[in-house]
Amino acid sequence: MSISPRYLILADGAFGVHTSKTAVGCIRFTPEQVVGVLDTVTAGQTVEQVLGFGGAIPVVASVAAGMALDPNILLIGIAPTGGQLPESWRPVLRAALESKLHVWSGLHVFIGDDPEFAELARRNNVEILDVRKPPPELPVSSGRVRDVSATVILTVGSDCNIGKMTTQLAVRTALKERGVSVAFAGTGQTGIFIDGKGLSVDAVVADFIGGAAEQLVLDAAKTADIVLVEGQGSLLHPGFSGVTLGLIHGSLPHALVLCTQPSRTAIRNNEWVKIPSLKSLIAMHDLVTTPLRFAPTIAVAMNTFDLGDEAARDAIERGMAETKLPVTDPVRFDPGPIADAIIAFHEDRLASGQRHARN
Amino acid sequence: MSISPRYLILADGAFGVHTSKTAVGCIRFTPEQVVGVLDTVTAGQTVEQVLGFGGAIPVVASVAAGMALDPNILLIGIAPTGGQLPESWRPVLRAALESKLHVWSGLHVFIGDDPEFAELARRNNVEILDVRKPPPELPVSSGRVRDVSATVILTVGSDCNIGKMTTQLAVRTALKERGVSVAFAGTGQTGIFIDGKGLSVDAVVADFIGGAAEQLVLDAAKTADIVLVEGQGSLLHPGFSGVTLGLIHGSLPHALVLCTQPSRTAIRNNEWVKIPSLKSLIAMHDLVTTPLRFAPTIAVAMNTFDLGDEAARDAIERGMAETKLPVTDPVRFDPGPIADAIIAFHEDRLASGQRHARN
After folding, report:
1. Confidence at residue B20, expressed as pLDDT on a 0 to 100 scale
2. ipTM of this model?
3. For residue B179, what are the contacts with CB-CB under 8 A and spacing of at least 6?
4. CB B281 within 8 A of CB B174
5. Which of A105-122 are b and which e, b meaning 16 or more Cβ less than 10 Å from the residue's Cβ?
6. Taking phi first (over 0 means left), then psi (-120 to 50 degrees means alpha), and beta for anything else, what does residue A100 get?
7. Domains (ranges, CATH) in chain B?
8. I want to staple A239 with a disulfide (CB 3.0 to 4.6 A). Which of A214, A323, A325, B140 is the partner?
9. Can you tell me the distance from the alpha carbon of B135 to that of B246, in angstroms, rounded to the nearest whole number?
10. pLDDT of the residue at A2
11. How many CB atoms lie within 10 A of CB B200?
12. pLDDT of B82
């Protein structure tokens, strides 16, 4: 995965709707890596015309038309219902491989395990990358992250799908603007595609969640002073809390950024689980990090996309009053306060000589 | 898996040593299900002579010799180094399948995926059961357990390998003696072999830990008033805490039994993680269960096997003083106090009319 991606994104029949989350995420955060989108429904328009952002990136109707845009990777940007490979995609994948495009996929079904596509890839000397396929030799995590000198920051949240990846990407931009050496560690398929590397922690066998997170941080810490780990799930989530805690104890962050959505009062699709106050959420994270390595929550990222301007600013004010922490919506307003809190924490950590301590 | 097991246990070259944990567990808890052990080193002795318990169960040197004992299953009772299938086991497995024995295995490598053994099993009309192979269609957990009327009790612990399975099995016996309708839900390979059913929750893909636990409880609750779920790992464990929390939030216990070992002050193989006080452990579990369904800790099981009698009784006294809960070593002394605490909790739950409430 050491290619500079130039994605042609497959989003046929679903571009701009909910199931094209991966396509939209890549366009939002790294439009410079996207040369075109393949969608027969909106073909002929620009991405900007379909999504309201994304500029002049063209939407095309076929791989053949897309090849004029000089892609090197066909990225699967939509999730088929049921997670299986729709029959209608087979000619598209065939054409892509025959055009010598790599194929990158985050589907549950592994495209590289399909005999026809595996053979086509081999014959055309391109690679099929199924990012949900875990590497074969993951360790059980055992705190090896304590040896890295980089400052590790993890986003945690009150629920799934609330901005844990988006916050880290926005903060990364802000840290870069401030001249900081920073790396993003992607833990889910969209984060991995945006960054061109990473490890899908929820796709590994349960015993190795922590080991996957540990490996990811060890790799990212080689190249940066600050590592921003993409959080997953929530300690409150009935389905995914195990992934969340495994990620926390495997990545062993020095500090946390809490992601919330003020309008959300219960876990999505699990209305019986009420979301407690910011203070309670912070206390819960304090408690689970303390026995391994205490990680204070140093800022709050609020996803206010569904509020008016005044309500959004009110929610942020209330959050600051409750937590005494920097609170912002890093997409709507400014990731700066979070970036500044991270820099202050990092400098304080260096100053207090913890750089070479193992705790 | 609806067979009454009559196990011939393969433990060749390792019977009675650490790597035969599965063999020893099955003999300790369900000796009536074990007709013989296959080990060329100790062949000719009884299990009692090798282990110090287990009675007259014979150790034999071959499958052929074992067939005289009328087994129906060859159970793999040892873990090979590296998790792979040793070449030297192949003739044994071949002989077992040709003798029309089912083969049950908890290895990481799946015996049923081996073409030779798969074909032999088919031809002899027997089944190869790889218990670490998760069922294909697990759901993401979503609180469906709230609909069952049975009282669900989960063991949690300060570390791995501290007595979470052993406690539930000892308590099950005590509950049966008290005339209670009780089911054990095994979540790891030994627990599954002992009970002849269950689901290895740490072997599923991370997204489905909770779903596996949920399924297990739904199944067990069909046949019993009290379901004893075998706990896994620890909320403190750097490698396995994700499995632990996923199991807690998937099985949604009504109450917890905390398992500890007084002599253990740090997580095994992770000495940097110190084990906090019983009170802190209980507070941590209170905190993570509260947002979903509060599960009080109602008893403490102490594993005192490495203490003298007086030290063991002292540790139990101190535990009772600290927690104000029933504390016992259910193996060395008596599981009764835990069983009684569970019955009292169950009756109180029924009396307070929570049976039909969803919380």
Report:
1. 82
2. 0.89
3. none
4. no
5. bbbbebbeebeebeebbe
6. left
7. 7-130 (3.40.50.720), 144-356 (3.40.50.300)
8. B140
9. 17
10. 60
11. 22
12. 65
Residue B202 and residue A203: Cβ atoms within 8 Å? Answer: no
Q: Are strands A327-328 and A266-267 parallel, antiparallel or unpaired?
A: unpaired
Inspect the interface and report whether the beta carbons of B238 and A210 lie closer than 8 Å.
yes
Return the SS3 of B297.
strand
Its pTM stands at 0.90
Check: CB of residue A53 under 8 Å from CB of residue A30: no
Token pair recorded at residue B152: 């669900």
Grade residue A359 by pLDDT with cuts at 50, 70 and 90. very low
Close Cβ partners of A192 (under 8 Å, ≥ 6 residues apart): A106, A131, A186, A198, A199, A200
Question: For residues B340 and B281, what is the distance between their CA atoms, to the nearest angstrom?
Answer: 22
Q: Residue B140, class by beta-carbon neighbours within 10 Å (0-12 exposed, 13-18 middle, 19+ buried)?
A: middle
What are the chain A neighbours of B146 within 8 Å (beta carbons)?
272
- Distance in Å, alpha carbon of A34 to nearest chain B alpha carbon: 29
Cβ of A245 and B245 within 8 Å?
A: yes
Select the residue from A240, A280, A284 to test the B interface by mutation, using most B Cβ atoms within 10 A. Answer: A240
| Distance linking the first and last C-alpha atoms of chain A | 33
Residues of A in contact with B237 (CB under 8 A): 249
Neighbour-count burial of A65, counting CB atoms closer than 10 A to its CB (0-12 exposed, 13-18 middle, 19+ buried): middle
pLDDT, tens digit (0-9, with 9 covering 90-100), for B145-204: 999 999 999 999 999 999 999 999 999 999 999 999 999 999 998 899 988 888 999 889
